Task: inverse folding
């Protein structure tokens, strides 16, 4: 399938069905622990960007406690405009979140944006070549481009894997993907 929008529609329904069929205990335990290879990959990262999941996206905030225990500063994205503008704001689990556009939530802007060393991004689909299919707004593509030194890590349910995800020239591949069953790293020659 080469049409990204058609694949997005299929991916949303496939993810929705998968999450609805999960055993409640399996759902509660998913993404609670950091796999050792993941922890090693982000060992040198001081600031890690998470996101507030929408609907049936992977519950990435469950990683917050483990990341905090590792001494990481956490941040969350704040959508600035409909043109793909997004910044990252420092966040602690006890901080209040404020509503943003598209159903998003973000921390108080406070002292302003921070530059993450690792960006953990949501996605609709991925493949083993580390291509990521996002929602289509380009927010994370632009964030990856603005923070070229930051690790690019996707998080998803295993059902979100496809044999091939179409990629445009501006799509930056991920360096790793975390699912509820495995940690996939980019293969370097």
Result:
């Amino acid at each position: 399938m080469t049409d990204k929008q058609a694949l997005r529609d299929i991916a949303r329904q496939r993810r929705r069905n998968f999450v609805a069929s999960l055993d409640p205990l399996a759902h509660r335990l998913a993404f609670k622990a950091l796999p050792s290879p993941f922890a090693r990959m982000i060992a040198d990262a001081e600031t890690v960007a998470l996101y507030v999941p929408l609907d049936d996206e992977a519950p990435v905030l469950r990683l917050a406690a483990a990341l905090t225990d590792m001494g990481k500063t956490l941040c969350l994205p704040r959508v600035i405009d409909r043109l793909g503008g997004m910044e990252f704001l420092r966040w602690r689990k006890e901080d209040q979140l404020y509503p943003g556009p598209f159903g998003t939530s973000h921390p108080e802007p406070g002292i302003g944006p921070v530059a993450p060393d690792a960006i953990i991004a949501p996605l609709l689909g991925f493949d083993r070549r580390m291509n990521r299919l996002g929602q289509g707004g380009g927010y994370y593509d632009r964030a990856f481009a603005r923070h070229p030194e930051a690790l690019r890590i996707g998080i998803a349910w295993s059902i979100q894997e496809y044999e091939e995800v179409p990629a445009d020239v501006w799509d930056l591949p991920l360096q790793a993907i975390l699912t509820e069953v495995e940690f996939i790293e980019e293969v370097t020659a």
Q: What stands out?
A: The chain has five helices and eleven strands. The longest helix spans residues 4-21.
